[in-house]
Design a protein that fits this description.
Length: about 375
């Protein structure tokens, strides 16, 4: 029985699917492990990291930063090198830095694995899905073109930059309802977004750093791909990016978890406050009815509280998978402005990737 047939019957896989975590010792890798340790559909087979860690027990290679059971109960497991020979599994979650990801992820796809990547290395390739399952579940079909073009039995499937996830999620209801012309966004990004040890305490405590290397180009382009239209071409499905412009300023602030953005938008057709509210509140995610284990109970929540959302108070809702929108009001230069918040290492990284894999399983892409 294929996974599609399993999903159509509303059933989980008959047995758990073995998975590998690449970059398992890092900030995102640990979150992958904690999410996957007791996952109903997936089972951790390999933990892999750099040559600095390979051969050591996970508890020796990894400084555990999270709550709950230390090393998620995997402290004795040996860390493997990031090669298909040592660490192949049919599903691979990658929390590698972009440089190593560029070399290593294709080796696993070539070996037949479905690679769910957090890295930016392949995100903007035209045949690589850049997924937020609630917004563009159909884009998973891009892997047909990818496999044909590259001759891989496996594939690479990416999730967006940890700031883009919040931005694109808030833009989607407006884009679908009214069209978008222009977006102006300023991010206030948590220090966990810089990995570990990340930004030095003496630089960030009581401070704002108005620059994050390589961040703004990602935030200014990825939403257009995510909200683009899937079209049939001769060589299989392809994407036409959504046509609006995004201008972004990305800053680092002394917050541990949670990226907040202040966003102003110009719509393609005028809309009243009531209509904009309605667009947020009535938004139906593409994943509705799939029953994906990591999908939040509520994907996008619009609040009327005048001082919310706040990272410390709101970011852990729905295990970090909820997107919070607030402070919706008119903008005297563009049309509307608001604040959006989400969990950068869950919604923006590990949780996003696991949700992508669940979608792939539910759509019959993992067999
Ligand atoms: N932090 C976030 O909020 C966030 C959000 C979205 C996406 N991302 C992306 O997720 C990825 C990981 O980020 P992170 O914050 O978890 O970084 P991190 O804490 O620095 O972890 C990096 C991981 O990659 C491994 N690694 C480094 N060089 C390697 C090599 N040459 N070969 C094999 N493995 C290697 C490290 O292993 P060792 O321990 O052995 O060195 C470690 O496991 C990055 O691409 C980042 O852009 C991060």
């Amino acid at each position: 029985m294929t996974c599609r047939q399993q999903h159509e019957r509303g059933a989980a896989p008959q047995s758990k699917i073995p998975v590998t975590i690449l970059g398992a010792t890092g900030v995102v890798g640990q979150r992958f492990l904690r999410r996957l340790a007791n996952h109903p559909w997936f089972e951790v087979q390999h933990l892999a990291a750099s040559d600095r860690s390979a051969g050591k027990a996970y508890s020796h290679a990894c400084q555990w930063h999270l709550g709950g059971e230390p090393w998620a109960g995997f402290g004795d497991k040996p860390v493997q090198p990031c090669t298909p020979e040592a660490a192949f599994a049919p599903v691979v979650f990658s929390a590698l830095d972009t440089g190593p990801a560029k070399e290593i992820e294709p080796l696993f796809a070539q070996a037949g694995a479905m690679v769910f990547s957090n890295a930016s290395a392949f995100r903007m390739e035209p045949d690589v899905p850049l997924l937020i399952p609630e917004l563009n579940a159909a884009h998973l079909r891009l892997i047909e073109a990818q496999q044909r073009r590259r001759g891989w039995p496996g594939a690479i499937i990416t999730n967006p930059n940890c700031t883009t996830v919040m931005l694109a999620s808030a833009l989607a209801p407006l884009h679908r309802s009214f069209g978008l012309q222009a977006v102006l966004a300023t991010s206030m990004q948590a220090i966990s977004g810089a990995g570990y040890p990340g930004v030095a305490a003496m630089d960030i405590v009581g401070n704002v750093i108005p620059f994050i290397r390589n961040e703004e180009p990602k935030v200014e382009t990825e939403s257009n791909k995510i909200l683009g239209s899937l079209l049939e071409h001769e060589n299989g499905p392809g994407l036409t990016p959504a046509p609006f412009k995004v201008s972004a300023t990305c800053t680092r602030v002394p917050v541990l978890e949670g990226h907040t953005l202040s966003v102003s938008v110009k719509l393609a057709r005028p809309a009243s406050l009531q209509e904009v509210r309605q667009a947020f509140e009535a938004f139906v995610p593409d994943t509705a009815g799939y029953g994906l284990p990591s999908a939040p109970a509520r994907f996008l929540v619009l609040t009327d509280a005048e001082d919310r959302p706040q990272p410390r108070r709101d970011v852990e809702e729905d295990e970090g998978m909820r997107i919070h929108v607030g402070r919706l009001r008119s903008c005297s230069i563009l049309d509307w402005k608001f604040v959006v918040l989400g969990h950068n290492t869950e919604r923006g990284a590990a949780g996003a990737s696991v949700l992508n894999a669940e979608l792939a399983l539910a759509q019959g892409v993992l067999r």
